[in-house]
């Protein structure tokens, strides 16, 4: 149900008005803006980036969905209001009847969790996806905490592993100010998942056991600022993705690294956060790895504006694009024929790129060689409607699959730009 295909015209941006927690002022007791998700969407609508019917409506995760990761015992515990009060850190919740807690607190969180699971599939299909909520990285299969009631990151990855062919390796890039001990506990001995975590070493949760699951651990000091922060993020994101190329990146993009955040204790500026997201998306897109972003922690009044600004920035740089998304070309397996004909200097008579005016060419083998990486996302992700799909391997043989086989083991840098000799394209 969560994996139903949304209309092709939609952006792979997932949201539902049900995300927002609003009831009798209780939300004001927690130091957060419990309506930040709706505000992000409103800013994006104001900027004319999206409209209501062009985003993917998140659906609530059912018990059956949650049981893919959670234990029945844990889900049963949530029927006690005081347990939910402890996990969400909203003490008065303990005194509410559980049906109210279910409807007003847990349903929004289950809907955000459904959103993350849906966005995982969308990211694989379209190259990228953003769940405007989610990112509950302190929750593991049998334990919640730090406002995180459902393990949406673990769920999204397990759903992909179990239900989507070709997804068997995931990398979590967790850049929330806090350590992501939930997914770390869940994937402790799971070699399919590579975890990179950058966090303030002195704050919650300080989970020493969970730290053992982190492959790339970057512990920050109090008050870390833009220059140092961005340099570390850049170095380690590149390092992590060079070490292992996953089938999906889950990017936990918490904004509680923001200067003045009462919980995060770091001092990154709004521009620094926008830049950080850019660094991560560039690294993912350049390598043609699908990326799922969730917004996680960060609940200051100005947080929603920063998240919206960051999404607008990603769009202006061509790192996310609806037209590509709708046509399927956001998928790294697609390439623009105009770009090929401009850059391919070999006019082989059998090369479909030259012979045919048809724009529809699908050429997955091509991308596996790493050739596209040398061109870079700004070129490959042209906004032209003429996208490539539907062509078989043999139809594309004019480009010389034989030589592609040969180059497969070489890196993009070694291959360089499109400067093959004619001989290399002989099939
Ligand atoms: Zn956090």
TrEMBL record:
Top-level taxon: Eukaryota
Pfam families registered for this protein in UniProt: Hist_deacetyl
UniProt entry keywords in alphabetical sequence: Chromatin regulator, Hydrolase, Nucleus, Repressor, Transcription, Transcription regulation
Record EC number: 3.5.1.98
Gene Ontology CC annotations of this record: histone deacetylase complex
Catalytic activity: N(6)-acetyl-L-lysyl-[histone] + H2O = L-lysyl-[histone] + acetate
GO BP terms in the entry: epigenetic regulation of gene expression
UniProt main location, coarse: nucleus
Entry protein name: Histone deacetylase 11
Organism expressing this protein natively: Patagioenas fasciata monilis
Gene, per the UniProt record: HDAC11
